[in-house]
Amino acid sequence: MGLQLRAFGAVMKAGRTILFPPQCLDCGAGVAEDGALCPACWREAEFIGACLCDTCGIPLPGDSGTEAGLSCDDCLARPRPWARGRAAVVYAGSGRRLVLALKHGDRPDLAPALGLWLAAAAAPLVAPGMMVVPVPLHPRRMLARKYNQAALLGAAVARAHGLGLEAAGLRRLRHTPMQDHGSVGDRFANVEGAIRVADRARSRLEGRPVLLVDDVMASGATLAAAARALAEEGAGPVSVAVLARAVKEGKPGAAATEPPE
């Protein structure tokens, strides 16, 4: 019976592939398997390697892992309220298009595959008893978007590593303007005190290591506000993992301005 069920499953999978052939996550061209990129989009995806800032995940000049533990200029100049950080891809090319499709293009179907990219990048941060907490959306933005892309990514990361998920562990206290204009100082002031731990999540997060998840980071203002809120309630240590890290064009290790929220 077991052999027959496996054979039936294989037939069903083959039939589904014929009816719904795998498509590139970005452009929709035919690919060999689900969740893959076509060769053209793959060449545009700048996956972040081993040479990176251990605090924020931004790529640093170099081509090996011997630089582990280094911090970028931004993290040295503005200490982060979290311990370590990782990012899967640079916010450019097909990586940027996929983030925008997930975030603003009504493509929540991208989250499982992109979440696996993030889970792989975040693997060095995983610790026993860790809880995954996504950066929250304000209810007004949630109503317009209908889903929180950070929560979808966080759920995929939690599944991949067998971690607990506190999907509503943080709350937005006020609706903040988009973070795509203004100085770095303005962006930090914009989100100061705007995020706090949800009342019902306090006891579950207290004393637990936390993996704070978001879709993209540039200045890190939103993640800093969220990390401080967690620390104030006794959670931690806090690490951060983002799908994409914004980088100034032509300047590895330098953060770009905040992409639109």
Which range does the strand content fall in? 5-15%
Spatially, the strands of the biggest sheet line up as: 1-7-6-2-3
Name the helix and strand elements from N-terminus to C-terminus, one letter apiece. Answer: HHHEHHEHHEEHEHEHE
**C-alpha end-to-end distance:** 52 Å
Q: Level of helix content? A: 25-40%
The largest pleated sheet is described as: 5 strands, parallel
Assign an overall shape. globular
pLDDT averaged residue by residue: 87
Please provide the count of β strands.
Answer: 7
The number of helical runs is 10
Could you say which structural class the secondary elements and strand pairing correspond to? alpha/beta
Please give the radius of gyration in angstroms.
19 Å
Which ranges are low-confidence, i.e. pLDDT below 50, for 5 or more consecutive residues? 7-17
